[in-house]
Amino acid sequence: MGAPRAVVFGYHNVGVRCIKVLLAGGVDIALVVTHEDNPAENLWFESVASLCQAENIPYITPGDARAPELLAQVQAAQPDMLFSFYYRHMLPASILEVAPAYNMHGSLLPQFRGRAPVNWAVLQGATQTGATLHEMTVKPDAGAIVAQTAVPILPDDTAFEVFGKVTVAAEQTLWGVLPALLNGTAPRQPNDLSQGGYFGGRKPEDGRIDWTLAAQQVYNLHRAVAPPYPGAFTEVNNVVYIIEKARLSKQPAGSLPAGLAVVDNCIFGVCGDGRMLAISALTAGDETISAKQLQERLTTHVSTH
Q1: Do residues 262 and 298 make contact, with C-beta atoms less than 8 angstroms apart?
Q2: pTM summary value
Q3: CA proximity to 234, closest of 273, 279, 199
Q4: How open is the CA angle 68-11-205, to the nearest 5 degrees?
Q5: Residue 271: which of 290, 240, 289, 249 has the closest Cα?
Q6: How far apart are CA 260 and CA 252, in angstroms?
Q7: Which of 239, 251, 301 is nearest to 279 (CA)?
Q8: Could you give the CA distance from residue 62 to residue 36 in angstroms, rounded to a whole number?
Q9: Helix (H), strand (E), coil (C) string for the chain
Q10: Which residues lie across from 33 on neighbouring strands?
Q11: Which residues pair with 21 in a beta bridge?
Q12: 250 CB contacts (<8 Å, ≥6 apart)?
């Protein structure tokens, strides 16, 4: 028996770390399928293509996962197993039929199935999440669970910080179960789809702040989309302000109206429950806005009405 052969669909940090785990575990990676980087996207993560170049692994970047030539290339690689590590396209049944297929998902399934699981977990105020390796089925995130590792979401963690922990959890999950996976003794836990929920992709517009909500909800939104994600934003007098850094404030809002405010040369976001976010970094366009600048903008506007 030669080394087990795999075809890997991968992208992002989780793709890089999990490919490294397979290589360390003696898996022969016959082909990697990844994405062309999108120049319009903030590429804060590591490159699977660069790793393939360094390790001399053949890789391709097809635009469509359903293309017949992709299926032919996967079949030609004669894999014993397939892996998907943060690949962004759904794999069609024809590819999943080539060999047993396993996906690494960034949550504790069955919680937070679907897209952007780390961002959704933070947005929903979850106190833990993790990484789950599961069997792939045509329905996303629905196959049997092979292994999972939990990580905490602390009260002030941003999605970016949680993603770092989930990346390590993915590496640990795969590392721990890989020997059993390769010798056919890996466990299979049912994935109870009556629990948890399915979440869709997120757009930058979803970061718009509703100041009538409770401060905890607004804070969760800020943490879920804080940079390097597009950021939680609010519009005042046709100017879009993005909150870069904030914390829940212990100071009560008193009679301040909901929205951005300046108190004692500090910027606050006043929320619907009378609590505030202390905003330590606010931007508009490419410009950092100081408390003094914001005060002037807010006051000028008030006096002209």
Answers
A1: yes
A2: 0.91
A3: 279
A4: 100
A5: 249
A6: 14
A7: 251
A8: 8
A9: CCCCEEEEEECHHHHHHHHHHHHHCCCEEEEEECCCCCCCCCCCCCCHHHHHHHHCCCEECCCCCCCHHHHHHHHHCCCCEEEEECCCCCCCHHHHCCCCEEEEECCCCCCCEECCHHHHHHHCCCCEEEEEEEECCCCCCCCCEEEEEEEECCCCCCHHHHHHHHHHHHHHHHHHHHHHHHHCCCCCECCCCCCCCEECCCCHHHHECCCCCCHHHHHHHHHHHCCCCCCEEEEECCEEEEEEEEEECCCCCCCCCCEEEEECCEEEEECCCCCEEEEEEEEECCEECCHHHHHHHHHHHHHCC
A10: 9, 60
A11: none
A12: none
Question: How many Å apart are CA 123 and CA 249, to the nearest integer?
Answer: 18
Tokens 């914001």 sit on residue: 294
Number of residues assigned to the chain: 305
Look up residue 138 and give its two tokens.
């045509």
Structure tokens at 236: 């005042």
Q: Which amino acid is at 223?
A: R
The one-digit pLDDT tens for each residue of the chain (305 residues) are 689 999 999 999 999 999 999 999 999 999 999 998 877 777 788 899 999 999 999 999 998 999 999 999 999 999 999 999 999 899 999 999 999 999 999 999 999 999 999 999 999 999 999 999 999 998 888 999 999 999 999 999 999 999 999 999 999 999 999 999 999 999 999 999 899 888 988 888 999 999 999 999 999 999 999 999 999 999 999 999 999 999 999 999 999 999 999 999 999 999 999 999 999 999 999 899 999 999 999 988 655 44
Cα separation, 152 vs 162, in Å, equals 8
